[in-house]
């Protein structure tokens, strides 16, 4: 009996001791591991997923998303990059305040190109004010006058084409968009007198932004040296233009003028160096992105007779209504063309990866209901190029189907905000979206009204190696002048 009692006592003691030890373990160890960290992409020791990433981030995402889901971490050296793919998990990416998810560190590589004192070289409070200057320079009343300049540039440019012929559409649209951007953003002086000088300098600035520049923006390589010299010369040119506008009191309808007239909250006017830096930033944000999108739009329209006739019919209807007039309000009525551009941009967003740096821990819940904690210190990424083709959001995601945006379907909205992210969204959504659409519509409305076009090269491939991802090789198009017949 005694033996049984002590056995029972010992068992109880063991039981209690086990619970105490378990509690202690859970108090000291489990809290750390209870963090539900995202799964990790398999990789090599130390360099981690670097080789996978270098092969192309989208290829890596295509392999990992089906295995790991919408949230996972790629380790590279000592860095952790956590991907948030899909609207269910990316809301925080787009909405978080700068104190929680910031752009400054991850977009630092732009500083030698944009120059000192602007955008990612300044504190968030100053940057916010500078983005206010962008917002003001891109307001509807300003856009209205930019549109007139866009239309004139398109008319002048295409008047130089012959009766019929063959052209590389990609080259043609790149050139037209540099001219338009010069006129609307950089100003009349540059467009009319200094175009060749300034575009050569912008060419050097462009070439100074290599994939290696993202990691080592100040590496002493010839491309960076040319970039720095070009930037200096551009600063001198703009300083002269600004001084001349100020001394003559001449005011123009362009972004340059808006930036000259902009004032910080404390009343301080912008400096010449800031104006130059902001203009360079505008050109970097808007030029390649728009020219790439207008080329994809053309490639798709010329390969899809259904949509080609739909956009031509829309032009005919608008000509019946408004005659030859093409201004801001007429462009605003081009809904079919709008959807065709938007769909080209869904399939081919030029900015394929957006980044932030996390300063606080945060959690996300996947569509399958799994919760993950993302620790502070991670780089956080999302990818328009991948997310825009998620099959649970977009039906037959690889098919060009502009009607997916019509009332009743609205696939860009039904799964919630941040389903369609070619222009980003939320706190840092693109400020130039209306400008970009107006510009691309102005070009395509002119082409559709005045030319019969036929794609003669194969449908273009994607140039994944470019910093701003666009079209690989030439896009050869045969054209013949025409006048749309309109029954008045
Ligand atoms: C098809 C053309 C364009 C595309 C696809 C595009 C795309 C984007 C994207 C994805 C972002 C968000 C970046 C991020 O979240 O990290 C962005 C931001 C921005 N874009 Fe665009 N963009 C285009 C045209 C333009 C144009 C024409 C301008 C100006 C003239 C412009 C000015 C800006 C500015 C200032 C921001 C920064 C907004 C902020 O951080 O608050 N963009 N753009």
- According to CATH, what is the class of the largest domain? Mainly Alpha
Number of DSSP E strands:
12
What spatial order of strands do you see in the largest sheet? Answer: 1-2-8-5-3
| End-to-end C-alpha gap | 113 Å
The ligands found in this model are: protoporphyrin IX containing FE
Shape category: globular
**CATH architectural grouping of the largest domain:** Orthogonal Bundle
Q: Could you give a short account of the major beta sheet? A: 5 strands, mixed
Structural class by secondary-structure content:
alpha+beta
Helix content: 40-55%
Write down the CATH topology of the largest domain: Cytochrome p450
Pfam family, one: p450
GO cellular component, one term: membrane
Membrane topology: Single-pass membrane protein
Organism: Arachis hypogaea (Peanut)
What does this protein look like?
It holds the Pfam family p450. Its EC number is 1.14.14.154. It is an enzyme of class 1 (oxidoreductase). GO terms for molecular function: heme binding; iron ion binding; methyltransferase activity; sterol 14-demethylase activity. The protein is α+β, with helices and mostly antiparallel strands. The protein folds into 2 domains: 1-35; 36-481, Cytochrome P450 (Cytochrome p450, Orthogonal Bundle), CATH 1.10.630. Helices cover 53% and strands 11% of the residues. The chain has a 5-stranded mixed β-sheet. The chain has a 3-stranded antiparallel β-sheet with strand order 4-12-9. The chain is globular and about 100 Å long. Bound molecules: protoporphyrin IX containing FE. Protoporphyrin IX containing FE (HEM) is lined by residues 131, 134, 282, 285-286, 289-290, 293, 349-351, 354, 422-424, 428, 430-432, 435-436. Residues 131, 134, 282, 285-286, 289-290, 293, 349-351, 354, 422-424, 428, 430-432, 435-436 line the site of protoporphyrin IX containing FE (HEM).
């Amino acid at each position: 009996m005694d033996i049984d009692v002590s056995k029972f006592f010992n068992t109880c003691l063991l039981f209690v001791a086990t619970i105490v030890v378990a509690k202690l373990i859970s108090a000291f160890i489990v809290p750390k591991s209870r963090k539900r960290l995202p799964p990790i992409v398999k990789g090599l020791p130390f360099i981690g997923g670097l080789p996978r990433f270098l092969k192309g981030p989208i290829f890596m995402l295509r392999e990992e998303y089906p295995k790991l889901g919408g949230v996972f971490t790629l380790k590279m050296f000592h860095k952790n990059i956590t991907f948030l793919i899909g609207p269910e998990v990316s809301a925080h990416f787009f909405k978080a305040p700068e104190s929680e998810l910031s752009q400054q560190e991850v977009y630092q590589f732009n500083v030698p190109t944009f120059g000192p004192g602007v955008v990612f070289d300044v504190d968030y409070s100053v940057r916010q004010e500078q983005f206010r200057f962008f917002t003001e320079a891109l307001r509807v009343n300003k856009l209205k006058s930019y549109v007139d300049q866009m239309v004139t540039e398109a008319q002048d440019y295409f008047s130089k084409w012959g009766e019929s012929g063959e052209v590389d559409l990609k080259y043609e649209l790149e050139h037209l968009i540099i001219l338009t951007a010069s006129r609307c953003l950089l100003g009349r002086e540059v467009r009319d007198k200094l175009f060749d000088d300034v575009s050569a300098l912008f060419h050097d600035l462009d070439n100074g932004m290599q994939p290696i520049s993202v990691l080592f923006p100040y590496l002493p390589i010839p491309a960076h040296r040319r970039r720095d010299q070009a930037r200096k010369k551009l600063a001198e040119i703009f300083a002269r233009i600004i001084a001349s506008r100020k001394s003559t009191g001449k005011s123009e309808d362009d972004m340059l003028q808006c930036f000259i007239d902009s004032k910080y909250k404390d009343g301080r006017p912008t400096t010449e160096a800031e104006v130059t830096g902001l203009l360079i930033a505008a050109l970097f944000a808007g030029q390649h992105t728009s020219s790439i999108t207008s080329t994809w739009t053309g490639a798709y329209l010329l390969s899809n007779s259904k949509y080609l006739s739909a956009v031509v019919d829309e032009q005919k209807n608008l000509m019946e209504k408004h005659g030859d007039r093409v201004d801001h309000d007429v462009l605003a009525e081009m809904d079919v063309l709008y959807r065709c551009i938007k769909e080209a941009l869904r399939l081919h967003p030029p900015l394929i990866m957006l980044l932030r740096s996390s300063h606080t821990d945060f959690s996300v819940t996947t569509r399958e209901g799994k919760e993950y904690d993302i620790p502070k210190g991670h780089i956080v990424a999302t990818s328009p190029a991948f997310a825009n083709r998620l099959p649970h959001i977009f039906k037959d995601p690889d098919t060009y189907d502009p009607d997916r945006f019509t009332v009743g379907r609205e696939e860009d909205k039904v799964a919630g905000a941040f389903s369609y992210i070619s222009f980003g969204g939320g706190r840092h959504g693109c400020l130039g979206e209306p400008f970009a659409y107006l510009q691309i519509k102005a070009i395509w409305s002119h082409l559709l009204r005045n030319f019969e076009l036929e794609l003669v090269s194969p449908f273009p491939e994607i140039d994944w190696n470019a910093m701003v991802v666009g079209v690989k090789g030439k896009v050869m198009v045969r054209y013949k002048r025409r006048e749309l017949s309109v029954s008045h």
